[in-house]
């Protein structure tokens, strides 16, 4: 691979007038002075214009199952051709990969009497600087109302500067919620619903609601997701810590041990198996939960396990030494399928509200900007995964699970031109002073490593180059995600086999006595 690492990278960009809607939206923010980069505003010289012709020549193009030295030609935000016969400019390359897709974020999220500091502009700008070109955020219903929740998040997302999708949380159950789930899938482009087994009194659901939700998800071809911790156990763990006088941040992890994550993961997996519907377990943080996912997958059950890059005062919490290595091994062996962040950031002032009572600390950490670098450094540099595995774990598998592949997650003709160029010989250092998130702390503070995203292309626009962001709000697009991903293949056959096996109803002779 060394022969491909000498880098001469030329970009030819020819601009045309962007759509009136995108232009008017971005101009509103430009006039307000919101954006990154001197050339990000305006139409004549903007490198963030949505219509352009761009050639990446001589790079090592990496997809999830193949890599080759090839040229990538982009026109109007779409990849037109990938090959070795495009002759526009001379260049040799680094690793040219699909932009990252983060399956798990919370931007402008109202939680624990406060709101996360990153909104749909600042969080996405940070993501682009780190090589992530799409994310899927979680909508929390407004007092249980899914439509009202969707409309609220639509407004929040008007300031987006990259593509995004939505999951929907389900926090109560009645006939209205059931009908709204159908509306979300058929008309709003949502194909996943999340159920919290923790956060009692806020979003936690019981097993009866979980079963109803699983059945509805199956009927719609939507993916059921769970936050797997035993909520009643967490409440008891918190009470115990307070009684023992453990009130500081250390009480958070101590009150939610791995056994509670393992129990809830096992319960959700078994109920999903009972209904025969695919299941996605968010933020797998322990050996206990990972082993339940491994066991289910070995038996043939459709279960997806998503570890996240970090943990701190978040739920489930970061575990003691040993869990991290086990999760890394599970990623490299295919037991776990992709990596998210659960990016949900609060500043130090917000976190300090729980200095004397860990139960009041708003849960969450950063990761949108750091994920691609940290995963490369920990997993690729160490030899635990290949370059193609890296693309699968950070982009392609997410696109497949949420049914937007190969529009996203690939460098193929017809795919969206969301591309990164990563230099494996370049180094990075993570600090709160240099990151683009609005939080004043960083859980990776001071971390150094190899493998740096030097260029990010979003929708055919060069938005990150030479350590400079060129983005304005209002240029991102909502990506609708259709139901019935590959995880539903064969589900009906399994149902038929089960019904056949019952040999029911059984005919019985009536007694004559």
- Discrete helix count: 14
Major sheet attributes: 8 strands, mixed
Low-confidence stretches: 1-21, 43-51, 86-91
Summed over residues and divided by their number, the pLDDT gives a mean of: 89
End-to-end separation in angstroms reads 86 Å
Shape: globular
Report what the structure shows.
- With 513 residues, the chain is α/β, with parallel strands linked by helices.
- The chain has one domain: TIM Barrel.
- It has 14 helices and 17 strands.
- It has helices spanning 20-31, 122-129, 146-156, 175-187, 207-220, 231-243, 250-255, 258-275, 287-298, 323-333, 348-351, 371-380, 387-401, 491-502; strands at residues 53-62, 67-75, 78-83, 95-98, 100-105, 110-111, 114-115, 132-139, 163-169, 192-196, 223-227, 279-281, 303-305, 419-429, 448-458, 461-465, 468-469.
- The strands form 3 sheets. The protein has an 8-stranded mixed beta sheet with strand order 3-2-1-4-14-15-16-17.
- Strand 1 and strand 2 (67-75) form a beta hairpin.
- The longest helix is centred in the middle third of the chain and has 18 residues, at 258-275.
- The chain starts with 19 loop residues before the first helix and ends in an 11-residue tail after the last helix.
Structure at a glance:
It is an enzyme of class 3 (hydrolase). By secondary structure, this protein is an alpha/beta fold. It contains 14 helices and 17 strands.
Strand and helix layout:
Layout: H1 20-31, E1 53-62, E2 67-75, E3 78-83, E4 95-98, E5 100-105, E6 110-111, E7 114-115, H2 122-129, E8 132-139, H3 146-156, E9 163-169, H4 175-187, E10 192-196, H5 207-220, E11 223-227, H6 231-243, H7 250-255, H8 258-275, E12 279-281, H9 287-298, E13 303-305, H10 323-333, H11 348-351, H12 371-380, H13 387-401, E14 419-429, E15 448-458, E16 461-465, E17 468-469, H14 491-502
Parallel strand pairs: 1-4, 5-8, 8-9, 9-10, 10-11, 11-12, 12-13
Antiparallel strand pairs: 1-2, 2-3, 4-14, 6-7, 14-15, 15-16, 16-17
Pfam families: Amidohydro_1
Catalytic activity: 5,6-dihydrouracil + H2O = 3-(carbamoylamino)propanoate + H(+)
Protein name: dihydropyrimidinase
């Amino acid at each position: 691979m060394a022969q491909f690492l000498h880098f001469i990278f030329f970009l030819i960009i020819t601009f045309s007038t962007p759509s009136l809607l995108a232009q008017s939206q971005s101009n509103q923010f430009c006039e307000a002075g919101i954006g990154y980069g001197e050339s990000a505003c305006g139409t004549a010289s903007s490198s963030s214009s949505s219509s352009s012709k761009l050639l990446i020549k001589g790079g090592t193009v990496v997809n999830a199952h193949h890599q080759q030295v090839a040229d990538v030609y982009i026109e109007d935000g779409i990849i037109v051709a990938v090959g070795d016969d495009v002759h526009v400019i001379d260049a040799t390359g680094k690793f040219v990969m699909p932009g990252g897709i983060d399956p798990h974020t919370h931007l402008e999220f109202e939680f624990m009497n406060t709101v996360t500091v990153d909104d749909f502009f600042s969080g996405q700008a940070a993501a682009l600087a780190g090589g992530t070109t799409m994310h899927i955020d979680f909508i929390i219903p407004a007092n249980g109302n899914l439509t009202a929740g969707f409309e609220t998040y639509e407004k929040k997302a008007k300031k987006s500067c990259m593509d995004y999708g939505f999951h929907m949380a389900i926090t109560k159950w009645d006939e209205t919620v059931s009908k709204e789930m159908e509306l979300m899938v058929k008309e709003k482009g949502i194909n996943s619903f999340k159920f919290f087994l923790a956060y009692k009194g806020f979003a936690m659901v019981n097993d009866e609601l979980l079963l109803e939700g699983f059945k509805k998800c199956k009927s719609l071809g939507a993916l059921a997701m769970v936050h797997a911790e035993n909520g009643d156990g967490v409440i008891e763990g918190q009470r115990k810590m307070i009684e023992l006088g453990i009130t500081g941040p250390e009480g958070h992890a101590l009150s939610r041990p791995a056994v509670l994550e393992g129990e809830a993961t096992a319960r959700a997996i078994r109920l999903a198996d009972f209904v025969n519907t695919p299941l996605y377990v968010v933020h797998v943080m322990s050996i206990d939960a990972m082993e339940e996912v491994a066991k289910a997958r070995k038996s043939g059950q459709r279960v997806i396990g998503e570890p996240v890059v970090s943990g701190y005062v978040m739920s489930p919490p970061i575990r003691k030494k040993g869990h991290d290595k086990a999760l890394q091994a599970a990623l490299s062996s295919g037991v776990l399928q992709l990596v998210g962040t659960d990016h949900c950031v609060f500043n130090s002032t917000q976190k300090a509200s729980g200095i004397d009572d860990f139960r009041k600390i708003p849960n969450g950490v950063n990761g949108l900007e750091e994920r691609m670098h940290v995963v490369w450094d920990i997993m690729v540099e160490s030899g635990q995964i290949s370059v193609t595995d890296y693309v699968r774990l950070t982009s392609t598998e997410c696109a497949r699970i949420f049914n937007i592949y190969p529009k996203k997650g690939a460098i193929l003709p017809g795919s969206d031109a969301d591309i990164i160029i990563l230099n494996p010989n370049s180094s990075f250092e993570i600090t709160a002073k240099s990151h683009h998130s609005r939080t004043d702390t960083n859980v990776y503070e001071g971390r150094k490593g190899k493998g740096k995203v030097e260029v990010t292309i979003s929708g055919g626009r060069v938005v990150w180059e030479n350590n400079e962001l060129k983005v304005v709000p209002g240029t991102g697009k909502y990506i609708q995600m259709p139901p019935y991903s590959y995880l539903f293949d064969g589900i009906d056959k399994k149902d038929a086999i089960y019904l056949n096996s019952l040999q029911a109803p059984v005919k019985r002779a009536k007694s004559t006595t």
